[in-house]
Amino acid sequence: MRRMTILLFQLFLSIFAGYAVIYHVPNEKLLVPLICLVTMFFVGKHPLARPEIIVEWEKQVLLSSIS
Asked: What distances in angstroms separate CA 48 from CA 16, 29, 41, 54, one per listed residue?
């Protein structure tokens, strides 16, 4: 997965969790937002979601294009 895809997926999960909380709080069905937030946490721990890897990769590409 590319970094942008991971970020968009996290954005979708956060919007869905917010929607579920707003419209399902009286019913106390908060398991879906909790699962969305936990999934966002684990997706954020994916190696491609970290910007350090992207920065190192860009440096390698720039150095390889110069030489």
From this structure: 23, 32, 14, 8
